[in-house]
Each structure stands twice: as C-alpha cells, then as structure tokens.
Amino acid sequence: MRNEAGLSRSLKLWQIIMLGIGYMTPMVVFDTFGIVSEQTGGHVPMAYILAIVAMLFTAASYGKMVKAFPVAGSAYTYTQKTMNPNLGFLVGWSSLLDYLFLPMINTLLTRIYLSALFPEVPSWIWVIGFVLLVTIINMISVNITANFNTFLVMFQMLVITIFIILVIKGLIQGEGTGEIATIQPFFQPDMQLSTLIAGATVLCFSFLGFDAVTTLSEETQNPTKTIPRAIFLTALIGGILFILASYFTQSFFPDVSRFNDPEAASPEIALFVGGKLFQAVFLAGTFTGTLASGLASHASVSRLLYVMGRDNVIPQKFFGYIHPRFRTPIYNVLFVGGISLSAIFFDLVTATSLINFGALIAFTFVNLCVIVHYVVREKRHKTVKGFFIYLLAPVIGALSVAVLWFNLDSSSLTLGLVWAAVGLGYLLYRTKMFTSKTPQFHFEEASDL
C-alpha cells in the first residue's frame, strides 16, 4: 500500500531554471575548451552555436511532451503513454544510466579536485563528506535544494564575470587577438564545417541536464506552463553562458599553443588570465559547479525512481515512498547517496562512459514521442504551423541526436547495451515473458499534490 504523502508543489520558474543550469554546470565550458579549440582550429564559440541549435530542437520536444503529460517521469512516462509500457520501462531503465550515475560523477570530480589540493587527506573522506552534504539537503526539502543550488549557480556566474573582466583587461593590453570585439572565434576563411560539427558533438554533452527539470513537474506550480518554459530557458541561458565564456576564452587563447595539456587546460586558463589568486577563486567556482550539479542530479534521479516505484515497475514500497513531513522521496535520496559512494572506487573515464548512453536514449525517444503523440494520434501536422512544430522540428531534433549516436565512444555503447540487457531481463521476469501487463501510470495519483 503506497503512503498517502505526495510531492509538494512549491517550485517556481526561476528555481527550476537554476536547478537545470546547476545540473549543466556553467564552469564546464573551461573543462572542454582546450579539446574543442584544438579540434575546431580555434572556433569553440561557433561550435557552441551549432550545439545549442541542435539541443534547442530536443528541448522543444521535451516542452511539448510535458504539456501532454505533466508528471515526474520524463522520457520514461512519455514513451510509456505514447508508445508502449514495456518500451517505456526500457527507456526509463536506460535513462537511469544518465540520471543515476551523474551524482556519482560529481562526487568523483570533487574527490579529484580536493585530493589534488589536500593530498595528505585520504580521498574517501571527501567522498563521504560530499555525499552526506548532498544527501541531507535533498532529504529535507526540494525548496532548500533549489535555493542552495541557486546560490551555487550565482557564484559560478560571478566567477565567470570576473574571468571576462580580466580577459577584457588582458585583451586591451595586447593579449590574444588584442581585440575585445572580433569575429575570429566565430569565422575564418579556412575554417571547416566538419571540424565544427565534430566539436559541436563534444559540446552537446555539456547540455545534459536541461531535460532533468521535467522530473520536477509534480513539484512545480502550474507545470504545463512552467516546465516547458523552464526547459527552453535552461538550454538557452546555458548556451548563452557557454558562448559568451568561450568567446572571451578563445579571444585570449586563439590557439592551444600556450597549454601544456589541452585536455586539462582549465587550471592553466585561470592562471594565465588572473594569476594564482584568481586561480584559487576559479577552482572554488569549479568545486561549487560539481556541488550544484550534484544537488540537482541527485534530486532529479530521486524523482524518476519515485515515479517508476509508484508505477510498481520497481518495488513500490521502497521507491514509491514519500516522507510525510519532508514531502521528498527520502528512500530514493538515500539510495542515490549510497550509489554515489561508489566514487571511492571508480575512475573518471569509466564513470563518464556510463551516462552518455542513457542521455541519448532519452533524447531520441522524446523526439519520437512528439511525432507519435501529436502527429500519429492527434493529427496536428496538417497545418503549416503544425507540420513544422510537431513533425519537422522533432525530426531535426532526432537527426541531431543521431549525429551524437554516431560519435558515441565504444565503451559508452558497450556499457549501455549491457545495462539495457539487464533491464530487459528484469522486464521479462516482471511481465512473465510479456504474458502480463506492465503497470500503468494513474494520473489521479498526481492530481492531489
């Protein structure tokens, strides 16, 4: 018997946007800069423009689906309700790779950063401390989570603002291109479209997180209006931040010749731009980025597990439980915290490989769900406007995701397929080889929240 407590509808638009931006981590622009600058021949901002255009089509698809199904299950619920309950479960199971392991990756990054700063302290202490902090905040209240996350995001924006001011000062003094306003980072006659697309493919993974706000639909005031706006604005604002920061970084560093290691250029970028004092502030911004992303991703996966538990496709008594006082899925929060502790044993390459497969599965099926729901079922594509919004736009979104699939590394694909196979095995057991129905979602369970 499921407990009567439900999620609390208390989040406002700005809180949702900040959670989404926190999930995306604005400071990540510096982590990928060296790699993509080398790959694109010094045109990172242009690659970001291509990436954001591609991602906005998928963001629009999420917005359309949340209007039809304003519940917390995201791609899992959309596929379940528009296509097939069994397929919906497999999409939700695959998406868990993205949602479930990102909190662990943020824990792992924190361990790496703090162990580098304090090598004499055992690394497991940082893991346990970080997981305890994120778990306790998520247990108590979604509003506390959102407000603390907002503070962390604003600090990152402050660091980026100081960075831009220092870059402008350096450009005036003749550093880099020596110009505050230049078209060079966006266009040069010898630039190649193929390298830009390759760079944009890498940068698209920086946008993972705009979709996570859909898991907060049942804790949002007026979700059919608020969540679609939040999804689009999260992707757009995140994209503008990335373009702006990468423009000034590229102007200061027209190529990667000044970096000892372009794949780990972030600390050198801070050092060259502002010296050791700013480098310390910059590293603080990097740490708050992992904390903000950790909070937001922990909250999101807890809600996805809650919906799957409420549907009884995973054990309802545990995963479908809401604490009557805190109004949070407290068992799920603790469960995700337990998984995050595995950061003690994982390395970054393996951990990162776990999330890309799940994210691309979700992106692919959300675009397809728009076509099935609005075109096949509701026939809304028969007008010129409807053709573009409900057919052409999601097709472009799906094709953009297909480019990402083509560039997915083999380890991500292998681990993802193994995870999907485990989910298929569980589904076969749960449905007795498809002879019984997968439990369906009941909307009245969400209507009284």
Descriptive report:
It is a single chain. By secondary structure, the protein is mostly helical. It has 16 helices and no strands. The two termini are 18 Å apart.
* Global shape: globular
Number of strands: 0
Largest sheet: none
Number of helices: 16
Query: Runs with pLDDT <50, length 5+?
Result: 439-449
CATH architecture: Up-down Bundle
CATH topology: Amino acid/polyamine transporter I
Helix content: over 70%
Helix-strand pattern, N to C? HHHHHHHHHHHHHHHH
Distance between the termini: 18 Å
How much beta, percentage-wise?
under 5%
CATH top level? Mainly Alpha
Kindly name the structural category.
Answer: mainly alpha
Measured on Cα atoms, how large is the radius of gyration? 22 Å
CATH superfamily: Amino acid/polyamine transporter I
Please give the domain count. Answer: 1
What is the residue-averaged pLDDT?
Answer: 85
Q: In terms of topology, how is this protein built?
A:
Blueprint lengths: L12 H12 L3 H13 L3 H25 L6 H8 L2 H33 L5 H18 L1 H31 L20 H12 L18 H30 L13 H45 L5 H4 L10 H11 L7 H30 L6 H23 L3 H21 L13 H4 L2
Summarize the structure.
The chain has 449 residues and is mainly α. It has 16 helices and no strands. The chain has one domain: Amino acid/polyamine transporter I (Up-down Bundle).
Keywords summarizing the entry:
mainly alpha; Amino acid/polyamine transporter I; disordered C terminus
